[in-house]
Amino acid sequence: MTTNLNGTSVNNTDSLYEKDFQLWLDATAKMLRERQLEQLDFNNLIEEVESMGRSEKDALESNLVVVLMHLFKYKYQPERRSNSWLSSIYEHRRRIRRAFYKSPSLKNYLNEVFAECYKDARQEASLETGLPLEVFPIECPFNVEETLNPDYLPE
Known about the structure:
Blueprint: E1 3-5, E2 8-10, H1 13-19, H2 21-33, H3 42-76, H4 83-102, H5 106-129, H6 144-148
Antiparallel strand pairs: 1-2
């Protein structure tokens, strides 16, 4: 394949993927727009599309762990409650809502990983607070709806 992109002649998208990722993206988008499917680097394109899906899921998990961890801190360290904790809870709930808005199917994924994220949040809360792990219940005291509810705070 030879294509001219921004004055750069590209002969092989496989090697371009390794040498200049941004140029590979630009060339791939151009080929897709022009329906030049026979010239596409399908293996790397498939890998990148799959990677995008993993990134969305990873971000969702990360935001969920932060919300759960701060809910723990809020519940188990009432004397240390701060606006920064509230702000963090709000911000990460907002990120989850935005992810659901952009990709509603992520709601199902959140339900699948909630228990695992809870385990991670429990461990992180113990590390951050200095409280023994046993202080935090093995079963999550907040359900999914409470965890995501913008008005919910544990007492």
